[in-house]
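Raw record, unedited: Tripartite motif-containing protein 47
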Amino acid sequence: MGNGRVRLSRPLSQQRKVCLHLNATQHRQSLGTHTLLVAQQSSRWKTPSSMHADATPKSDRYAHARAKAPMSEPPQCCICLGEFSSPALLPCGHCFCLGCIGEYWRIQAACQCPLCKASFPTRPQLIAVQTQHAGAPSEEASAPFKAGEVPCDLCPAKRRAVKSCLACLASYCAAHLEPHYRREDLGRHLLISVGKNLEDSVCRLHGKRLNKFCRSDRTCICAVCAQTEHRGHHIISVNREATKKKVKLKCTRMKVQQDIQERLSKVEKLKLSVGLSEKNPKEERAQNKELIGKLEEEISELERRSAELERLELTEDDLHFLQTCSGLS
């Protein structure tokens, strides 16, 4: 210590040890917050110079990223709190989904690690990490897409898309989305949650996103439409209109369920009457059976409508919801 140099063997506090040695498999246990909260809390973690991009030899910076050790359980990204999608390793040693860290840097307008606050003067070349845990299927052999999921338009293996671009009218996986975070021209494109039929999300007159609803004309419009063709009309946001309509839709579905129960009760009474009316004339029994048949047909139609209303009510995409149920009263 007499020569003014910092001894590397100096004991570290427990907090500093966690900061230095936290890796992809420990994120799930140590973090439970969203992107911005992670960035705020991490401000109290001091970053030693050895963790900055300019303090680590380039040849050794990614050495630990090349090791491929199977994991007993899937690691999680501390930004999205889900399993890694195209994981990328930063020079400081922390790992994030490629799409997550790209979006974080775009919002923050600075290349900085959300965890340790290590700053990078220039955008680092991210290195892919092998995170497949023991017994996990490969990405190409993954389970079929769930409802609402769409494949990447550029992937030969058709990986799951994480974002859709309204300018490109295409959906991309995390790896193919990276150019939208890296290139200035693509960075101006509007990225939205993954959706099908992207052309239906864009105004055909102005090429802008349909994010408003004109209650006067009962149609979805863009911001330019609101200032031109629909100027002076009763206009609200798509989200607000969808919320209002979903409340009304729920009431309609409850009324349909009530109608179903009333008809089921009538059918039970008629069946009981038919069973106990052996002494009644044949004509009366035939009429009861015919009435039962009509009621059962009505019940089937009401159940079909109830299922359709429930499906619409659970639609997460507000724009698609409004476009689908635009014909409902």
